[in-house]
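Q: My labmate handed me this sequence with no annotations at all. I'd like to see what the chain might look like in three dimensions before we decide whether it's worth expressing. Could you predict it?
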Amino acid sequence: MTERAAIEGRLVDADARFALGARYGHFTAMQVRDRRVRGLDLHFERLEGASRELFGVGLDRAAVLGSIRAVLGDDLRDASVRVYVVESGRPHVLATAAPPRQAPSRPFRVTPVVYQRYLPHIKQAAGFQQAHIGRRARQEGFDEALLTTGDGLISEGSITNLGGFSGGRLVWPDAPMLRGITMRLLERLDVPQERRPLKVADLLELDQVFLSNSWGVMAVGSVDGVELRQDDKLMALLREHYDGIPGDPLD
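A: Here is what I predict for the chain of 251 residues:
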């Protein structure tokens, strides 16, 4: 399929999509399966909170659903969908649809990069720095970059959250970050959980390190070429929990 775009329920051409998509604003990314989305209320909550912070106004949920439905049309049941709220005189809701993405089954290779996002709790529409960091990481043979502070504390990936297991506890970095929708769904897993400062060296001591984003959950196999521990049972626990979350209907 070719990428589609809709603004407040109206299909538009690619020029209009890029003209608005590059503006000041925020967005959320989701995987649509059989016209359902996991954590749809969390996506609305994200968009609502960011809209109030950036624009000082609430979010029209009907406009969001209208644009998603318009961009899916009558024929698409599975797709990667992004919903942007961007300013062009006033806030506009823009949705795009592209081919669906699935989390790769192979472990990811990651590398640390010193960079911290401004307003990290907001998923920002104009993400040049993160896009550049991710692109450079891939050019160097890695799958993802881990964003760290100057003294080495890990916050998140360029387009992912990072987590790990230690002695049966699910560990998240204690650092400013975007709490991704998949991360928030994994926080509902019925295991002990904690936040603590994590540096790259600490990853070597964890039983399993993983990444999460709208694609799903991915194991981390190495950091800067150093192999990490792998535990298939822990990855299966994460994936079974995530896969077992029912999607919310869009229609």
